[in-house]
Amino acid sequence: MNFFLETLRLLVLSLYYTLEALVKLVVPVRKKDVSGEIVLVSGAGSGIGRLVALEFARLHATLVLWDINAEGNEKTARLARERGAARVYVYLCDCSKKASVYEVAEQVKREVGDVSILINNAGIVTGKKFIDSPDALLEKTMEVNSIAHFWTYKAFLPAMIASNHGHLVSIASSAGLFAVNGLADYCSSKFAAIGFAESVALELLASGKNGIKTTIVCPYFINTGMFDGCKTKWPHLLPILDPNYAAKKITDAILREQVLLVMPRSLNFMLAVKNIFPVKTAILLGEYIGVFDSMEHFKGFAKRE
Fold it and tell me: What is the pLDDT of residues 204-227, one digit of tens each?
């Protein structure tokens, strides 16, 4: 195909896809049925992991709950059963360790079956300036927030490819789209998680496995306790998100097979400024929205439950 025809194809399809996206804003895509699907949620013992698991429990999915916190994970399982989950399986898993991920994954395959919706949610944050962060914590942040996704994909993606059916979900962060002062390691891990999810999605598309969907979630701070002490300069423009609202939006995005979910929507404008305008303009916007001091009073989790 020559240059003229390929360029014409690009322009025509770009216009079509833009119009399609505008129509979907008015007429939302129908939600898929996940009853009976095997849904694995890592980091299910608290926070967004727990709340997303409970959303899928209400939809009568089979839940596989992973967490390093056994007590919190058991509590999530009890709440999930109360909300109508078809089946609930609880596993202790340290996602920072490849051996643990592979061992528990094999146990899941034997005891439950092939996971069809994989939600990589487990995450940690140090909340320290890079130069003040111990090496061990820097490594742990990368291991939990991004490298663990390698091992969960390796464990569960082959069965999805064989059946051309599945859904890969990465609970990333707006810190994977924008740099934040005081979050160097966390930003690095989330940029990596987004790049990995996008790259594997492209591999699947190129190989014709269009039955395997990908959803990448990029929220601003969520009020789960993980970022306690963090502040937002303009709450009406860039609010700290309510956990229940965030969990419902994440679940809805998965059910509608939405590729990218950015919360709140105002971040899309800021992302456009970052990508289109000069670097100094993006820095000026960063100062305006408060990314230079949002972590100044960070405390993090007092406790996990």
Answer: 999 999 999 999 999 999 998 888
Structure tokens at 290: 């408060």
Instruction: Name the amino acid, one letter, at 94.
Output: D
Q: How far apart are CA 109 and CA 10, in angstroms?
A: 43
Give the predicted TM-score (pTM) of the model. 0.92
- State the Cα–Cα distance between residues 151 and 66, nearest whole angstrom: 14
- pLDDT score, position 228: 85
Buried b (16+ CB within 10 A) or exposed e, 25-42: eeeeeeeeebeebbbbbb
Q: Look up tokens 């505008």; give the residue.
A: 22
What count of residues does the chain have? 305
Give 3-state DSSP helix, strand, coil % of the chain, rounded to 5. Answer: 50, 15, 35
In the chain, at which residue ranges do the beta strands (DSSP E only) sit? 38-42, 62-67, 87-92, 117-120, 166-171, 212-219, 260-263
Q: Out of 186, 220, 245, 288, which one is annotated catalytic? A: 186
Q: What is the pLDDT of residue 1?
A: 61
The pLDDT mean for the chain works out to 92
Q: Give catalytic status of residue 186 as yes or no.
A: yes
Structure tokens at 207: 């190989």
